[in-house]
Amino acid sequence: MFFKLVAFLLVSLAAAEDLSFTYNGFQSVNLSLDGVAGVTPNGLLRLTNDTRQDQGHAFYPNPVNFKSSPNGTVFSFSSTFVFAIRSEYADLSGHGIVFVVAPTRGLPGALPSQYLGLFNEGNNGNATNHVFAVELDTIQSKEFNDINDNHVGIDINGLHSANSTTAGYYAQNNGGFQNLKLSSGQPMQVWVDYDGTNKQISVTLAPIKVEKPQAPLLSLNLDLSPILNETMYVGFSSSTGSIFTSHYVLGWSFKMNGQAQEIVMSKLPKLPRMGGKKRSKLLTIGVPILSVSLVLLVVSGLIYFIRRKRKFAELLEDWELEYGPQRFKYKELYIATKGFKEKELLGAGGFGKVYRGILPSSKIEIAVKRVSHESRQGMKEFIAEVVSIGRLRHRNLVPLLGYCRRKGELLLVYDYMSNGSLDKYLYDQPVVTLNWSQRFRVIRGVASGLFYLHEGWEQVVIHRDVKASNVLLDAELNARLGDFGLARLYDHGTDPQTTHIVGTLGYLAPEHTRSGRATTSTDVFAFGAFVLEVACGRRPIEAHGPDQDLILVDWVFSFWNRGAILEARDQNLSSEFVAEEVELVLKLGLLCSHSEPTARPSMRQVVQYLEGDIALPELSLLGLSSNGLTFAHHEGFDDFAMSYSSSLGKGFSHSSYAAESTLLSGGR
Ligand SMILES: Nc1ncnc2c1ncn2[C@@H]1O[C@H](COP(=O)(O)OP(=O)(O)O)[C@@H](O)[C@H]1O
Ligand SMILES: *[C@@H]1O[C@H](CO)[C@@H](O)[C@H](O)[C@H]1NC(C)=O
Ligand SMILES: *[C@@H]1O[C@H](CO)[C@@H](O)[C@H](O)[C@H]1NC(C)=O
Ligand SMILES: *[C@@H]1O[C@H](CO)[C@@H](O)[C@H](O)[C@H]1NC(C)=O
Ligand SMILES: *[C@@H]1O[C@H](CO)[C@@H](O)[C@H](O)[C@H]1NC(C)=O
Ligand SMILES: *[C@@H]1O[C@H](CO)[C@@H](O)[C@H](O)[C@H]1NC(C)=O
Ligand SMILES: *[C@@H]1O[C@H](CO)[C@@H](O)[C@H](O)[C@H]1NC(C)=O
Description:
Transferase(Phosphotransferase), domain 1, Phosphorylase Kinase, domain 1, binds 2-acetamido-2-deoxy-beta-D-glucopyranose, alpha+beta, Jelly Rolls, rod-shaped, eight-stranded antiparallel sheet, signal
C-alpha cells in the first residue's frame, strides 16, 4: 500500500514536469515553421502549399527532454496526429508527411522529394544524425528500398526504413486488414508510441471515424536511447516532388511519459473544399459530361469545316497561278450572290444562269454567270483568253472582271449592266423601246466592239455568239457585247454524244453549220442578223403558224427587191428616224448576211460604212441578185434545217433555239 502510494507520488511528480500538449487545430499556436510551411487562417498546419519540389517543417518550438541524462534511457512517449494529403490528381501525389524527433528544430541541409525534408544524399543513414521518424510515404523510392507507393515506415537516422508496411489498419473484432490510401485527401489519424521499458516502437493508423485499433500497423523493437539525445525537438516534415501536393496536419497531441491526450475531431479545422468528395463528384459527373460535350463540339466543328470546305471548294491548277488577280474565290462569289439565290437570278442563257451580286470587299455590282462544264479540255486556252480579254477594256464590251473554277463548273464575273440585255427592248411588245438614234448608237457600238475583238487586240478573238440578247446596256445605254468567246469552250473537245451549244440558230452562217468552224466572217454574218433585228424589231426567225417561219433576212430582202427596203423597219419607230441611216443599216444587214463568206465585209469595213467614212457598195453589184441571195441563203439554211429537223421537229419558232455541236461536229 505504501509502495503503491510512493510509486503514485513519483509518477505524478514526474508527470508534473513531463511535457504534454494538444492542438485541436493550430490557430495561434506557437510553432517553429520553415520552408513553405504555414498555418492557414482557419488553423490548418499546411506543410506544403500546392507546390512542387519543395519542403516544409513545423516543430514544437521548445526543446523536449527525452532522457534524464546524456547516458540515460529514453522515456516512454506517445503522440498522435491527424493529417491529410491532397494533390492535383486523384491517383498521384507528392511524397509525404513525416513525424520526426530530431536534435535541431530545422533539419539543415535536408532535401525535398524522396528525402522527405529529412536528409540529403550525404547524411542519409549516418548515425550522427540522431533522428527518429515515422514516414507516411506516397512514392516508392527504390533507392531506399521502399516497399510500395503507399506505406508507413519507421526510420532511424535514414530513409531506409527499419520496418515498414502498406498503409492500412486492423479493424476491431477481427475485421481484418483494411487498406488506406494515404493520398486520398481524407483526414487520417496516426499514433506513435514508444514504450521505454520494453524498448518498443509502435505505429498505428486509422481513418478519423475509427477508434484506435488495438493492433498496431507497425512495430519495431528498438532502444531509442543511443539514437536520441537528452533534449530533442518534435515536429513534422513534408516534401513534394513533381506533383502539386498539399500536406496538412489538422491536430496534434504529444505526451512524454504517458498517453497523449485524445484529439477532439469536432474541433479540428475544416480542410479546403477543392479536393476530396467534391472533386471526385466533379470528376465522376462533370468530367464525363464535359468531355462528351467537348467531343461533340469538336466533331460538329469538324463536320462544319468539312462541309464548308466542300461547299466552297474550287479547282485551282498550277497554270492558273499567274491569273491571280482575275481569279475569284468561290466563297466571295457565294456571299456576293447571297448563295446564288433565285431572287438574284438575272436570267438564263444558253450557257447557264446569270446572277446579280455585290462583291463583299469592294461593293462593286457584278453579274456572275455559272457555266456548267465537265471537260477540262480547252479550259486552259479558254481561261487564258478570258483573262487576256479581261485585261482589255473597250467601251462596247462587257468588262470581264475574272473567273472562278469549280468541279464541273466555271463562273465568269462581269460588271453589272444595269439596263439588261437589248432583246427585251426590241420584240414581244416591249414595255420600253429604243428610238432610232439610240438604236443606231447601239449598232455602231456593237460594230465597234466586235471590230475591237477581231482586230484591235494582239490576237483575233472570235465572238461566236453575236445576238441581241448578248448585247447589254449599261447605265448610259451604251451597248456592250458580252459572252465573247464562250462558245469556243464548247468548240474544243466536243463530245458527239453530249449536247453543247455553239452559237444560236438564225445567227449561224451557213458555212459555220457545215464546217463547224467559226471565223471572223461567221461573226459578221451573226452581226448582220443582229443589225436587221435591231432595225426591224423582229427575231431572225419568227414563227407565223406551222411551216410558216419568217426568215428575217429573206423578208428584208424581199422589201429590198421591191425597192422598198425602208418598209422593213420596226413600226415602233413611228416617224422619228433618219431614213438614210435606216436604209444603210438594213442594207448592211443584208450584205453581212451574204451566204458567201468572202462577199461579206470585214468588221473594219462595217465600222467605216456606219461612220459614213466610205459608201456602202450597191447590193446588186455584189451579186445580190434576187435569186442570188435567196438561193445562196437558202442553200445554207436548208442544209442546216435538214440536219436539224429530225431533232428539233417542225419549224424553228424561236430564234433562241440553239445549234448543237453534235451536228456541228458531224459536219466537220
Ligand atoms: N453583265 C450583266 N449585267 C446584267 N445582266 C446580265 C449580265 N450578263 C447577263 N445578264 C442577264 O442574264 C441573261 C442571260 O445572259 P446570257 O447567259 O448571256 O444569255 P444568252 O446566253 O441567252 O445570251 C441576259 O439576258 C441578261 O438579262
Ligand atoms: C514561440 O516560441 C519561441 C521559442 O520558445 C519563443 O522564442 C517565442 O517568443 C514564442 N512566440 C510566441 C508568440 O509565443
Ligand atoms: C506557398 O508558400 C510560399 C511561401 O510562403 C509562397 O511564396 C507561395 O506563393 C505559396 N504557394 C501557394 C500555391 O500558395
Ligand atoms: C556516458 O557513457 C560514456 C561511454 O559510453 C562514458 O564515457 C561517460 O563517462 C558516461 N557519462 C556519464 C555521465 O555516465
Ligand atoms: C557521418 O557524418 C559525420 C559528420 O557529419 C562524418 O564525419 C562521417 O564521415 C559520416 N559517416 C558516413 C559513413 O558518411
Ligand atoms: C514490423 O512490424 C510488423 C507489424 O507490427 C511486425 O509484425 C514485424 O515483426 C515488424 N518487423 C520488425 C523487423 O520489427
Ligand atoms: C547528440 O549526442 C551526441 C552524443 O551522445 C553528441 O555527439 C551530439 O553532438 C549531440 N547532438 C546535438 C545536436 O546535441
